[in-house]
Amino acid sequence: MDFSTDIFLDYLTRPEFLSAAGVTLAVAVAAQLIGIAVGLVLALFGMSRYAPLRWFTHGYIWLIRGTPPLVQLMLLYFGLPQLGIRLTVLQAGLIGLGAYAGAFMAEIIRSGLASVSSDQMQAARSMGFSRLQSIRYVVMPQALRVMLPPFGNEFASMMRTTSLLSVISFEELLRVTRMAINETYRVIELYSVAAVYYLAMYSLWLFVQAYLEKAARRGVTARPATAPTEIKGAQ
């Protein structure tokens, strides 16, 4: 069977593929946001002085990173109903992918925060910054510069990982592609269409990531309007 350029171009611009690509991107963003929230909590637990919280973080990361995300999704969608818990494909997908991303984001956030010397916090507090201001304007800008590159890689991976949702019948890009193949038997053309969409999303994210990293290097965080202008106590 020859490669048909007409079929390739036809499906490349079909609304169902454009819509599926949008759904894929939206799910990736939503799952990554869940992963950031989970990762932040785990990172704080992991840096806690209370041992049970640190053990919980280590156990979570060990469990999630040690098992394939496909197995986790299958357990959520096909396994939980045996326990009387039924999730929709979207709920199972977001929980599964968000929990998976959280294990990786925990390490990224922990590494970023640990890279900032404690002296930075002490110096900010000595200048009159509150603890929240010290974190917002001193610690986080420095930590973000460390976190952004691995975070960018993690999100790029997430866009590809969403293809696993096709096994639980969620209609993202790969699922729509497989349904089209079942109707036409044009494998190479349609998988090529899917590859183009994944590459387009990945390339778009590279531009966004480059902008964010450049902005972080410039130190886009503005000085707080309420920040003290003199060292506390200096008269």
UniProtKB/TrEMBL annotation:
GO CC terms of this entry: ATP-binding cassette (ABC) transporter complex
GO molecular function, one term: transmembrane transporter activity
Keywords: Amino-acid transport, Cell membrane, Membrane, Transmembrane, Transmembrane helix, Transport
Pfam families with a match to the protein in the record: BPD_transp_1
Cellular compartments annotated: Cell inner membrane; Cell membrane
Transmembrane domains' residue ranges: 20-47, 59-80, 92-113, 188-208
Family: Belongs to the binding-protein-dependent transport system permease family. HisMQ subfamily.
Name under which the protein is recorded: Amino acid ABC transporter permease
